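U., I forgot to send this yesterday:
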Amino acid sequence: MYLKALEMQGFKSFPDKTVLTFGKGVTAVVGPNGSGKSNISDAVRWVLGEQSTKSLRGSKMEDVIFSGTGERRPQGFAEVTLRLDNTDGALNSPEPEVAVTRRYYRSGDSAYIINGKTVRLKDVNELFMDTGLGRDGYSMVGQGKIEEMVSAKSDNRRDMFEEAAGISHYRYRRAEAIKRLEQTEENLVRLRDIVTELEGRIGPLERQSKKAQQFLVYAAERKELEIGLWLELLKRGAEQIRELRGKLGVAQSQYDIAGQTVQKLSAEIENAAETTRKINVRAEELRAENSRFEEQASALEAQAAVFDNSIVHNNETADRIKRDFELQTGAEADIDAEEKAANDRIKELSSVTDEAERKLRELTGVLTGLESRNEEYSDEYNALNAVISALSLKISQLDIMISSSEATAKELSERAETVGNLLKEKENECAELKKEKKDAEKAYSLASETLGEKNNMSAGLALRLKKAETRSEDRKEEYENEKLRLMQINSRLKFLQDTEKSMDGYQGSVKSILREKERGTLRGIHGTVFSLISVEEKYRTAIETALGNAIQDIVTDNENDAKRAINHLKETGGGRATFMPISAVRGRVLDEKGLDNCFGFVALAHELVRCDNIYCEIIKSLLGRIAVSEDLDCAITLAKKYSYKFKIVTLDGQVINAGGAMTGGSKINSAGFLARKTEAERLVRETEKTEKRIKELADALKEANEALAKERADFEGFRGDIMRANEAYVSARSRLSLAAGRLSDAENSVAALKKELESAGGKISYSEENIRLAQTEREALISEKEENEKKTQALTGGKDDLTARREAVNSQMSEVNLGMVSAMKEIQAEKEKLDSLALRRMSLGTRKDELNAELEELRKKNAELTESADGTRASAALLRDGINKNTDEIKSLFGQRDECEKASAEARSLEKEKTEEREKLNGELIRLGERRRFLEKEQENTEKRLFDEYALTRREAAEAAKEIESVPKAQKRLSELKSLIKSLGSVNVAAIEEYKEVSSRYEFLSGQVNDVEISRKELLKMIDDLTGQMAERFRERFDEINGFFKETYVSLFGGGTAELVLEDENDILNCGIDIKAQPPGKNVKNLSLLSGGEKGLTAIALLFAILKVRPAPFCIFDEVEAALDDVNVLRYAQYVKMMTGDTQFILITHRRGTMEEADMLYGVTMQERGVSKLLELKTAEMVRELKLDD
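Result:
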């Protein structure tokens, strides 16, 4: 049971009709102070029977009616209705939904209504007794009341604990028993007074009847014999009844067992159907998961293909780099060869210079010898000769330097020309590489743009695919829900059809006739009245009430068909039934002027019934003189107006009979024939509608799946375009990278050549300047030498030979010096060449390092791509394994489904057999029951004669009578006594009659005194038993609540201790109940020393403990967590959420932590002063709308 809805109109700040619907779980009501939130809690308390205006926060009951505002007039009444789901039968009502209404007028009139029937407050209290929802229950905790649960006196807590213990009903019965005991004792006193008075009258009457003593003797013996014979007759009847009861018990037991078996089989069939549905749902889930796995695996495999393609492109790039590296390596080999040749040449030239130095030393020695032979020349000659020699040496050296410089300048010019040519070639190569790079950049940009466009289009297609999947899933969910709904409708329809087929609720005689009709042994049987008519839902109760028992009357073709049926019932002992022959029955219709214009008049009852034309007269005969009115007030007015001439039935089943008698109360029990028939017809229509809806949904699902397949195909096809675009992008990026690298190498080479060209120009300029200076100096030295030679020739002419020889030596020395200088110049040129080669080698080394680095980067990328590809393929393989496992599970599920269907078919077959067996047992029960009723009626008549004749009950007669030894002798003696009494002639009959009257009354009242004494003892025993049961049950529930209180307290406080203590263990039904609580880290002697929050949390722990022991269907807490801090509010809210399995919670709150745990929110506002309005918001829908669950 749970609270489905609360309806308010005119209650406090809710003048307009306001409906709050509640689901299972937690509903929070929020709003600012003074907006009217707590009026919702007051409304529920009020409709449950609250009589205290103080508890309703008012001074008088009229305060619950909306008092008006500046813009609105006051309401004339307040009305609140609770709608409760009672499908579990928790309330003592057969209805699946119970509506409890309380209405109060400003005049002071009020009414309680349950399912449209006016009831007493006592009925409302009894309806909710021991459910936790009564006035003394624990399901409603008002604003500020939570602390009172802890602070209140210990004896004031008993009502809540007794309601939780479920002994309110016992206490109510005990109070009733005590009240009856008091009445019994009053009756006993009165009876004893009367018996005493009769005792005083018997004496005089006995003296007046002396003449009739003999008669009295005979009469006494006659009485004894008659009582004995009657008791013997009762004894034999009782034995027969006991035998019949035994047979009935066996038959009833077999009938019940068969019924239980049928119910069990029905449950098995339903469970099998539910299992089959779950299997189908699971199989669909696995199929959907396989589809999702397939998509993911395909995506992963496509991604692995992209990785592989990237690896191929990287390998191509690496090959190009390797070829470039080989070219660089070849150039380096050329440099090595040139360096080797240069070094070999330097070694060769070094040996030449060494040989020249040796020759030069030899010539110097010769020259020295010549000079030593010329010692005889004068010092002047020697000095001049030394000067000339020095000048000659300088001139030779300058000649060598000039020749070397000219050779160097020539070689540098040749090298500059070569470098210039190389520079032009590299610059041309740079231009081509720039163009190639530009083309690569354009291709890369185009590929990048194309890939971006493809990705954007892919995102759009993915979004469309997602929408298509959502549409398909939604259509599938709707389709499955409708199929489930159809299954439930068919299950309910089958139940109703099986119930109708088994004739559940039919009279035994009606069942017998209808079975014979089905067998074909009785002809002309049309069926029962209710099976031949149809009635709208709103008129059903009125028509059922108007028909009464006639609802099972049997319609036949003619009187002979009815006669045959009656004879069949007589022959088989099948009971009695009423038959309505179509050929004989003629109806009369009420014809009262002005009836149609009367307020509240609905129609004549037969006008509200639909049937075939052949049954119209029968329906008119049953309903033609019965009027239907809207309610009892209208019916009374209508009956008075027409002087109670005809029967009137209200829409809710109240009756005013012709003549003025009134019949009413709760709904009549007519086995719900019309309701069952109406529901079956409605379910048939709903089945057709649902099947049509399922067909539409199947078409929609097919369209959605086709659209999904198309979108998926488009998406998969486009993924190939994306892969190709990605490949083009990777290729363009590699091409651009390669072009950029080659351009960088070429630009570096151009820079190096330009630098070398600048260096060569500088060296050429330097060499030319050296040559110019050396030539100038040489010319000066030659002039100086010629002057000195002229002086030498003047000194002596005989030294020509010596001079010639010396000049020859000098000439040889000059040649040697020239060769040596030439070799040294060539050595210098080779060294400079080696320097140039070293620069080129350095440039090549840098490029090779760059190529190696780029190659290593590509190797790393390939390794990463290979790892990613392997991981992606592994993930795809795992998904493929999941698909295979799911496929195996689907096969297993289908096997289970086949087994369930097979078991269901077997159960249906067995159910049919048990149903037939149950019908046979039902016929036997009817026969035995009729026989028992006959014997019981005979027993009742005998006991009535015994009481009428002698004012004795059967028990009193058995105690007073003597045992009859021989029944024939007793009967013979009784006949003799009657003859003797007759032979006495005339006697004082008045005295005898008066004495008999007084004596009978005396005996009767004496027996009454005994009966009252017995009743008194039984009442005392009942009171003691109830007291014992109450004490035992209260002790058991109290201990359970105490245990849960300790656990809940520790859970909410995070420690500490708490317990409940009875003030008097010897008087547990009347003593007070103390609460002892010690929060963690505190030593509190009295609860009053706790803080407001601790008191509140302690009371909440007590509430939760009670709810664990005896869950209330729903609880309304009005700001019970107001005194708690945020941490404890969160604990409280989570605890409430945890307990929603057994209890529905409606929380009036200001706290965010409580709101966050709610399944539904109601906001209360007061936009119009004095008038409360509601705003409903389901939190699950809010999360979906705001996409907070993504």
